[in-house]
Amino acid sequence: MDKAIITAAITGAVHIPSLSPHLPITPRQIADEAIRAYEAGAAVAHIHVRNPETGQPSSDLELYREIARRVKSKCSIVLCLTTGGALGMPVSDRAKVLSLKPELASFNFGSLNFGIFGMTGKIDSYKYPWEEPYLKMTEDLIFPNTFKTLREFCQLFTESNTKQEIEIYDVGMINNLAFMLQQGHLKKPVYLQFVMGILGGIPATPNNLMYLYQTAHEQIGDFTWSVCAAGRFQIKMCTMSLLMGGNARVGLEDSLYVEKGVLAKSNAEQVEKIVKIARELGVEPATPDEARLILGLKGLDKVGY
Predict the structure, then answer these.
(1) Pairing of strands 112-113, 142-143
(2) What is the pLDDT of residues 111-137, one digit of tens each?
(3) How far apart (Å, rounded) are the C-alpha atoms in residues 52 and 252?
(4) pTM greater than the 0.70 cutoff
(5) What is the C-alpha to C-alpha distance for residues 42 and 77, in angstroms, rounded to an integer?
(6) What is the CATH number of domain 3-112+144-302?
(7) Rounded to a whole number, what is the largest CA-CA distance in the chain?
(8) CB crowding 115-145: b at 16 or more within 10 Å, else e
(9) What is residue 122's predicted lDDT score, i.e. its pLDDT?
(10) Which residues contact 142 (CB under 8 A, 6 or more apart)?
């Protein structure tokens, strides 16, 4: 590829406010960060929402609507809204966001243990009372994405005419995808996001990325793909993706740092870094409209916000 889609995952539902003062929380902060990421070279912004008073991950549809409208009024970046929501959130709450009919939305393609309880050892004091219990509960948590809910989500994606960004946390989820394609619940072409380095998912290593790519190619044929990786693995694995002809996702959802020991002050800093690396490799960041062509999106004029 001579063009690569750079995604900025703006706030996520993993990191807690006590870990960084730069984590965007309010709708205005999240929207402003998406706009800064666009200005830095991102074609896509991946959006979660948080309670603006406490920073706790939320499923409030009005928060999504406020962010989406604010971003849409300022720039043409593609918004990829989450259907993963937050850890422990009911599937029904996670699905509500598709009523906004976004161009693109994440689609987690299997169940897994999703452990972030190890973060408790890095925090001396908590800013909000919900934070410590939220981290600790994940020692006994399954992030559920059953075949039934996968089928139901497929129908919701079809009804909203929203492209799926299929989140692959481990190699078994590629089997799930091949099955759902075979059953006709999904249609090609598909867009995969290999999510690496989550405790409970596949480790973020070069060999594992090659294995995911090769397995997906064997199981489903051609596809468009991207990589995101947790923490210190973010830039390394995104660089490897670019070398392999893939796309890349950075952002404060996946890592709070711009380099070792240095907190990122904004998502834009990480976007600027991966854009610089891409250009050194002879790869230009795709514009939002180029990303729409690459992914086959319906266009900003057909969203529901």
Answers:
(1) antiparallel
(2) 999 999 999 988 999 999 999 999 999
(3) 17
(4) yes
(5) 8
(6) 3.20.20.70
(7) 50
(8) bbbebeeeeeebeeebbbebbeebeebebeb
(9) 87
(10) 111, 112, 113, 114
- CA dist 56 and 40 (Å) reads 27
Task: Write out the two tokens for 109.
Answer: 């393609």
Report the alpha-carbon distance of residue 11 to residue 48 in Å, rounded.
Answer: 6
The CA distance from 155 to 258, in Å, is 38
What's the rounded Cα separation, in Å, for the pair 27 and 273? 25
Q: Which residues contact 90 (CB under 8 A, 6 or more apart)?
A: none
What are the sequence ranges of the domains in the chain? 3-112+144-302
**pLDDT of 1 over the 80 cut:** no
How far lies 62's CA from each of 32, 85, 106, 212, 217, in Å? 17, 14, 19, 37, 39
Rounded to whole angstroms, the Cα distance separating 161 from 169 reads 24
Per-residue CA distances from 32 to 40, 42, 144, 221, 262 (Å): 12, 13, 31, 38, 22
| Residues 144 and 111 sit within 8 Å (Cβ to Cβ) | yes
